[in-house]
Automatic annotation (TrEMBL):
Keywords: Oxidoreductase
PANTHER family: FAD DEPENDENT OXIDOREDUCTASE DOMAIN-CONTAINING PROTEIN, SARCOSINE DEHYDROGENASE-RELATED
Listed SUPFAM superfamilies: FAD/NAD(P)-binding domain (SSF51905)
Name assigned to this protein: FAD-binding oxidoreductase
Domain FAD dependent oxidoreductase: 46-399
GO molecular function, one term: oxidoreductase activity
InterPro entries with a match to the protein in the record: FAD-dep_OxRdtase, FAD/NAD-bd_sf
Pfam family for this entry, one: DAO
Gene Ontology CC, one term: cytoplasm
Length: 444
């Protein structure tokens, strides 16, 4: 077994100290740079956005396209958090088990959430096309079953997608056909979706930042917000500047911290980790993932993986709720990869990295506005579906802030989101215990 050569492990904490992108495959293969300054002095705008990830960037684009003036503040670099570190899997849907919200939203509302999950991917597709963003977009995705009950779930999903008029090709795969998608005997079935796929997330974020700049959005990096003065005119303070705006969007997600304790208590920062192999020969790539699809299994402690544009296997998973990162990400993740692909035992791991995703108690993205501050909006807690759901959040926030509050935005804001128990110190250990129980159940 070979491990990391020629790269250093970057945990979320060390990246925060270094004020640069995590030393990931994505950071090593960016195709553009942004020459952005930090905020100095005072500015006025229609809307101020805190957070330079997908939520903030896409809200900025939606608002600028509607003619509003926007200032966006990022504490580190554009795409520094989960937006620039994630698995790059662009998968339909928002939330997990949205049927649970039927008592609140009704059948029509639940179907509305599902159809917006289709739209979320279309927004990404349209944004890439409109602004000519080079981010290795590739279509094709397959859910993987490790148990018969997963197969039964796929059959139910297939029927429901057909009922809803899903416009892209779908195909259920029996066990004896899994070799068409993946070179592993670990899986007993699958569901192919050609309306989902994969891409280079950091290049997408940088491309969307360039699009926002072209629309007149003012972007500032290394401009951490220190204080917010709420009121009819919100004032957002950084170390060297201040933004006054009629409306504010909080888009920090897992990195919101103490800026708003009420929102922070509703999202749990959880660590997720990825390794990237050396470039693989063509025959190996064809054996592992012959159709170059992104794939993901259905376990609680799931694995997700895909090929990069230059032929590496990017293998991710191992979501940590304990608040503690593995000391050696590659040593932790490589055995998981070898369980799926034993033939990669002597393959070098070139990159390893981690980051924080935001998870809510009910696994539905939290999109709404503060009850006591009606001019303050937020979007967070995507629970692993952030690549597409952030883009949907940006559209819904754009609609709401520009005066289209009823309907789509209201569908999300009507769902209550409980605060995690235990406060900042205890909520991660308590959830870790709960997830351990679910993982034990997952074995049967």
């Amino acid at each position: 077994m070979q491990t990391v050569q020629g790269s250093t492990m970057t945990t979320p904490q060390s990246a925060a100290r270094a004020q640069h992108h995590a030393s990931s495959y994505y950071a090593a293969t960016t195709n553009r740079t942004l020459d952005l300054k930090h905020l100095q002095g005072e500015l006025e705008a229609d809307v101020c956005i805190i957070g330079g990830g997908f939520s903030g960037l896409n809200t900025a684009i939606e608002l600028a396209e509607r003619g509003l003036s926007v200032v966006l503040l990022e504490a580190h670099l554009i795409g520094w958090g989960a937006s620039g570190r994630n698995g790059g899997q662009l998968i339909r849907g928002v939330g997990h088990d949205v049927e649970q919200f039927q008592p609140v939203l009704g059948n029509k509302g639940v179907d509305g959430l599902k159809r917006m999950g289709f739209e979320a991917v279309d927004i990404v597709r349209e944004r890439i096309e409109r602004y000519a963003i080079d981010c290795d977009l590739t279509w094709g995705y397959c859910d993987l079953a490790t148990k018969q009950r997963h197969v039964e779930g796929f059959e139910a999903d297939y029927a429901d997608l057909q009922r809803l008029g899903y416009p892209h090709p779908l195909r259920l795969l029996p066990r004896d056909a899994m070799g068409e998608v993946i070179g592993s005997d670990r899986y007993v079935g699958g569901l192919i979706d050609m309306g989902s796929g994969h891409l280079h997330p950091l290049n997408l974020a940088l491309g969307e930042a360039a699009a926002a700049l072209s629309l007149g959005v003012q972007l500032y990096e290394r401009s951490a917000v220190e204080r917010i003065d709420y009121g009819q005119q919100v004032r957002v303070h950084t170390a060297q500047g201040c933004v006054s705006a009629r409306q504010l969007v909080l888009a920090g997600n897992a990195y919101l911290g103490s800026l708003n304790k009420s929102l922070a208590g509703k999202v749990l920062p959880a660590g997720s980790y990825i390794i990237a192999t050396e470039p693989l020969p063509e025959d190996v790539r064809q054996e592992l993932l012959p159709q170059n699809m992104a794939v993901c299994d259905q376990r609680v402690a799931l694995d997700y993986f895909r090929l990069s544009a230059d032929g590496r296997l990017l293998f991710g998973g191992a979501c940590h709720y304990s608040g503690r990162d593995p000391k050696d990400i590659a040593a932790y993740m490589q055995p998981k990869m070898l369980e799926v692909f034993p033939r990669l035992r002597n393959t070098r791991i070139d990159y390893q990295w981690g980051g924080m995703i935001g998870i809510g108690a009910n696994r539905l993205p939290q999109i709404g506005r503060l009850p006591d501050q009606p001019n303050v909006y937020y979007a967070q807690a995507y629970a692993g579906h952030g690549l597409n759901a952030t883009h949907l959040a940006g559209r819904l926030l754009g609609e709401a802030i520009s005066g289209q509050l009823e309907g789509r935005f209201d569908l999300f804001s009507r769902v209550p989101h409980p605060t995690f128990p235990g406060g900042q110190r205890l909520r991660s250990p308590l959830l870790a215990l709960g997830m351990l129980w679910h993982r034990l159940k997952d074995q049967f």
